[in-house]
Amino acid sequence: MTNSWWELQILCDPALEDSIFWRLEDFGSRGTASEGKGDLCLVKAYLPKLPGATLDLELLSSQLHEDAVCVGSPIPTLSCELINEEDWATSWKQYWQPEKIGDRFLINPAWLPIPAAPDRLVILLDPGVAFGTGNHATTQLCLESLEKVDFQGKSGQLIADIGCGSGILSIGALLLGAKKVYAVDTDPLAVQSTVSNRDMNRISPESLVPAEGSVDMVMQGLQEPVDGIVCNILADVIIQLLPQMNQIIKPSSWGIFSGILVEQSVTVAESLENNGWIVDNLLTKKEWCCLNVRRSQS
């Protein structure tokens, strides 16, 4: 029997696009896309229709209303309809094009041809129902931060990707020169997506090891501590997991933490410092930020 999905359509001021993506992710969206509609932006999101459950659209609409009022933007309009799984799986793809990120990466949708003689590291990606297409500010900040890691000077680096989503950061790290990545996510669909994208990019199963779970699963697979951590999730979850992360690192390890709103940066930075990390710098993109940190002996 074909599963049904909710397709939400939100017509909004472009200034609200990123905050709407964040709201939709928190709401349980399994995929998002956006396109221009004159001076406005049309954001589409897809959520599974769960048996016996209803979407609290009134709450989401209220949150979008409050966000717009806070920044002085027109109130977005929200509508929804049920679509078949086959329609959901392809409908958002028509809006997604190859995108250059940072100085070295090109994110190329798997269903589109790779540009001839690309001058960048190409990540083929089909996120499926997992979060992580590369178009969100937090993912871009993490990839840009990975570019600054001296993989060549520290050969054989082991990395943990906590909350791997589609596996985009794991693949990016390996293309830059990492030796091995342990990628974990509490969403089994994200783990499936990471495996699929790993194979699509011709990365060996020994180099990228996905598993369902969190830091505890990394602990089970590790034979030695990791050299670095990439973690693009939510601020509260990062703070909660820091003590566990400290159990899998070296005295010289580095970290890249994102999924953090700018107004949350001080709280997260303080938690990192309380757990023995030193904040080297903070990168921002719109209302999001990324903290690049290291241990005291790096």
Descriptive report:
The protein has 298 residues and is of the alpha/beta class. Helices cover 31% and strands 33% of the residues. It has helices at residues 17-27, 57-71, 85-91, 137-146, 168-176, 188-200, 215-221, 235-245, 265-274; strands at 4-12, 32-37, 40-48, 77-84, 99-101, 105-109, 121-125, 158-162, 180-185, 208-212, 226-232, 249-261, 277-285, 288-295. The strands form three sheets. Strands 10-9-8-11-12-14-13 form a seven-stranded mixed beta sheet, sandwiched between helices. α4 (137-146) runs parallel beside α5. The longest helix has 15 residues, at 57-71. The mean pLDDT is 86.
Would you count the extended β strands for me?
A: 14
What's the N-to-C terminus distance?
54 Å
How would you sum up the major sheet?
7 strands, mixed
- Indicate the mean pLDDT: 86
SSE pattern = EHEEHEHEEEHEHEHEHEHEHEE
Counting DSSP H or I runs of 4 or more residues, the number of helices is: 9
Global outline: globular
Instruction: Write down the oligomeric state.
Output: single chain
Strand order of the largest sheet: 10-9-8-11-12-14-13
Helix content: 25-40%
> What is the C-alpha radius of gyration, as a whole number of Å?
19 Å
Strand content: 25-35%
Secondary structure class reads: alpha/beta
